[in-house]
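Our preliminary data section would be incomplete without showing what the modeling component actually yields. Below, a chain of 345 amino acids is followed by its predicted structure, encoded as tokens that our downstream tools consume directly.
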Amino acid sequence: MDQEYTQRLKKIEAELERWLSAKFELWAEDVFPGYGKNVNSLALNTLLEPLKDIISRGGKRWRPLLMTLVCETLGGGDSAVSLSPLVEFCHNASLIHDDIEDESDRRRGKPAVHKIYGVDTAINSGTFFYFLSSACIESCALENRGHIYKLWTECIRRLHLGQATDIFWHRNISFVPQIEEYYVMCSMKTGSLARFSAELGAYTAGAPEEAARQLGEAAEKLGIGFQILDDVKNLTTGIPGKTLGDDIVEGKKSLPVLLYLNKYPENRERVFSNFRAARLKGPSAPEVDDQIEILKSAGVLAEAEEKGASLIEQPRKIFNAPECAGFPMNEKGRALLDGLIGLIS
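Predicted structure:
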């Protein structure tokens, strides 16, 4: 099973590298029609180097893998692989901007992109990453390119609204959103790209709209569950390449925090005080440890982890079914999708 994923991931990586190739002339006219031959190489390097950097650091790549496996499972073979940058470049663009907005120092074990290349370059390159991803649509031979472009723009709009919601919450330390609002925020910020990945795989395979919708909704729940588990890890085992507890420094209203604030409203000021102190002092502040300890003692970390795992399990029924909206799903693809869900959780 691991070898099956490795083979597909190699194809995905090759496609990502193709669009960031040092041989600019291979794709210049696709990206900059009419200007490709006249682009200053130093300016181009300023634009592309941060993108090559963050892609080279790795990542789970589960979104393009999900897209590819959905396409295969619906009988489309590997025809979705060429669209891998459409999913993965958007994800990495959001990470570059997210680190600037959250004032994060590290990403995937190295200094955040804006710490190396400067905020101005990071903002510009991160934004360009979104538009570079769309070049995949323009260069592909699919008949439904217009529909794919529509799905992509809808996804990017939702992603940015989700991020705006998250920013508003952590800027306003004493503001406590409802737990249902948290799920909506996650569905936009994280779930939208997962949904797009599944829908993209379905449409590339020629599946009907209803099948794409059902698989997209299932993938959205997968994305929400992934975000919850990621937030729990930030406060427990830590996330490789990031600083333990930096969500406390950010003042992030993650699910464990919201569960605690709802259960113990009388302790809200203690939580807010810890957030304020952590923001001033950084991740080594004793208030970070205090905040993590009170969440752990209250059992909300375990409760959030259980909820995240539950949300990830729900899509299994959709991805494991022999058909979706009357469209057949082959057995091998279903087994690989089931295994991928297990790896994510």
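The two ends are 16 Å apart (CA to CA). The mean pLDDT is 91. Preliminary results of this kind motivate Aim 1 of the renewal.
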